[in-house]
Design a protein that fits this description.
386 residues; mainly alpha; two-stranded antiparallel ribbon; 62% helix; globular; binds zinc ion
């Protein structure tokens, strides 16, 4: 316990130091690469006549996933009575929640769903219904993660506290030797932690990782509170009117565990694998910090695609197996990513930029496992100098 407290204090101290350095980190270098990429992507839309947003297949997909979620919820609430129907339905509900996150909320939150702001807003609000907060997500994901992926102290998505070491810059503890095993289980608690702790904590301290954020006010605050009330009513209050408390809590735990594992693992496969880089800022003459590369190059260096040929994963993951393309063109609807991947890969080759993709989901999973083992391994003080 003492070790855990000491480790947690050290991690908090580490985050605080990084926070002090972190507010205005800039990228440097030429923007030639991203300008050429944008030119080619513009040409693709011109030639094909396709729309960047408001794609019919996206509306169809949204209806399918929401129907899937509603069916699982209604069946659990009114029909299922035996454990052998309740357990599979809870798992199906958890997968539906992840699908809403991957597809509907993520595109809406990125304003990649529609040209109409209100449509994006409505789609983004599905996160509030699932127990998260579209307001905090906009800061955590859009402003912070998408600007600073894999930069320790800036990207809160690679910060899992003292329990895991995801980047080489984070402090190492003896128990990290086993993180290649235990983190997979802890991923399952991500959603539960969100529901009960993270959002409230971030608002209380007005900070996400190293970045200060404004607390929600007015309409944003009303949405935050209404979202939490709707979620807790849907997850606990309404089911408890019809079922025993223990049964409701079991279904909640199971569905949240499934969605937590899926959401965490899919994120990790894009950024926490052997091929992804974890660049560090360099000091500037004025006492600040900057990145040595330009923004677009940084996105490609820190992000890895996987399973690009899997039709099922392309549909289910909402383009999150094409995170290189997503990081470069996050305001384009994900249904276009397979086509954009070809353009991005070719352009990277011409510019001498390394482009990484795992051929399958499982090769990406293995790479994430090896990365966790590597990050948990003690540095060999006795190893011969290279
Ligand atoms: Zn994103």
């Amino acid at each position: 316990m003492d070790v855990a407290i000491a480790a947690s204090d050290a991690v908090a101290e580490h985050a605080k130091t990084k926070a002090a350095q972190s507010q205005h980190l800039k990228f440097s270098g030429s923007d030639r690469f991203i300008r050429e990429l944008r030119r080619r992507v513009d040409a693709y839309f011109e030639q094909t006549g396709r729309r960047r947003r408001d794609c019919p297949e996206m509306y169809f997909k949204t209806a399918t996933i929401l129907l899937w979620f509603a069916a699982a919820y209604v069946l659990l609430l009114f029909v299922a009575t035996s454990w052998w129907t309740v357990v599979p339905l809870a798992v199906i509900l958890g997968v539906a929640v992840a699908a809403i996150g991957f597809n509907i909320q993520h595109d809406g939150g990125h304003r990649a769903y529609s040209d109409r702001p209100w449509v994006n807003k409505v789609m983004a609000l599905t996160l509030d219904l699932m127990g998260g907060s579209s307001y905090l997500w906009d800061w955590k994901h859009n402003s912070i993660h998408h600007t600073y992926p894999n930069i320790d102290g800036h990207d809160d998505d690679i910060n899992v506290g003292f329990l895991g070491r995801l980047s080489p810059q984070q402090p190492r503890y003896w128990f990290h030797r086993a993180q290649g095993i235990y983190l997979w289980v802890l991923y399952g608690f991500l959603a539960i932690k969100w529901h009960f702790f993270d959002d409230f904590y971030n608002i209380a301290v007005g900070r996400i990782g190293g970045h200060e954020i404004p607390r929600p006010k007015g309409k944003d605050l009303i949405i935050f509170i209404a979202g939490k009330l709707s979620f807790f009513s849907m997850a606990f209050v309404i089911p408890m009117l019809l079922h025993p408390v223990w049964a409701v809590l079991t279904v909640y735990a199971l569905a949240s565990f499934v969605s937590g594992v899926l959401l965490s693992v899919v994120f990790q496969l894009a950024h926490c694998v052997e091929e992804a880089e974890f660049p560090v800022p360099v000091p500037t003459p004025t006492g600040g910090e900057k990145m040595e590369t330009d923004w677009a190059l940084h996105q490609v260096q820190t992000t890895v695609d996987f399973a690009r040929r899997s039709k099922f994963l392309c549909w289910f993951l909402g383009g999150l197996n094409f995170q290189v393309e997503h990081h470069l063109f996050s305001k384009i609807c994900h249904v276009h990513y397979p086509a954009l991947a070809k353009i991005v890969e070719d352009t990277c080759r011409e510019f001498g930029v390394r482009y990484s993709a795992h051929h399958s989901f499982f090769s990406a999973v293995r790479s994430h496992y090896r990365w966790l083992v590597l990050m948990g391994r003690p540095e060999r003080a006795d190893s011969p100098a290279a």
